[in-house]
Write a structure and sequence with these properties.
Blueprint lengths: L8 E2 L5 E5 L2 E5 L4 E5 L5 E4 L3 E5 L5 H22 L2 E8 L4 E5 L2 E5 L6 E3 L5 E7 L2 E6 L2 H13 L10 E4 L18
Antiparallel strand pairs: 1-6, 2-3, 3-4, 5-6, 7-12, 7-13, 8-9, 9-10, 11-12
């Protein structure tokens, strides 16, 4: 059996779960999420645990088993605690600021880069070199952070660009002056 899929999911206190025909709605202190799960997966609701079972040992059911369990666990964590991705901006004259709900970034281009977040995602700029993306849906938070990073990914020579907090950039040596004789 799948090691991830067979683990029961503990239900945090304060969550209300509604499951009908593999359509799950989860209400929590941070908000509400809903998702339609694969119809082959068997989701059993207990008082304090949710378990996911698969009907057969086929390859597709094995892969869906762990995925379904992880999606449900992410829903529980999102509505109870939420998700946060932090980005750092490295480079001279690179900075970010919020104008209303729009993130405005100066990333070394001849123009400013504007980013409007999707519904359910909150973007904060505590200082001009840091961006905080938060929300209850893990997919939306991760996708938003990836889109912001994609405007100017860190380059390997000086490390300039937008990176995730704590991300290590493999640096390359630049040109060397060896063998410059005429």
């Amino acid at each position: 059996m799948s090691r991830v899929g067979k683990k029961p999911i503990p239900v945090p206190a304060g969550l209300k779960i509604d499951l009908k025909n593999n359509h799950m709605k989860v209400h929590g202190p941070k908000g509400e999420l809903e998702r339609t799960l694969h119809p082959d997966m068997i989701v059993e609701l207990g008082e304090s645990l949710v378990t996911v079972k698969r009907p057969t040992e086929s390859k597709q059911h094995k892969s869906l088993h762990g995925l379904t369990r992880t999606l449900i666990a992410n829903m529980f964590e999102g509505v109870s605690a939420g998700f946060v991705k932090k980005l750092e901006i490295e480079g001279v004259e690179y900075r970010a600021e919020m104008k209303g709900k729009t993130l405005v970034m100066s990333l070394g281009f001849s123009h400013l880069v504007n980013y409007d977040p999707v519904a359910g995602v909150k973007i904060e700029v505590p200082d001009p070199k840091k961006i905080v993306v938060s929300g209850i849906d893990k997919e939306k938070v991760g996708q938003t952070a990836a889109e912001i990073r994609s405007y100017r990914p860190p380059e390997p020579y000086k490390g300039k660009g937008v990176r995730y907090e704590g991300e290590k950039i493999r640096r390359k040596a630049g040109k060397s002056a060896v063998g410059t004789g005429f």
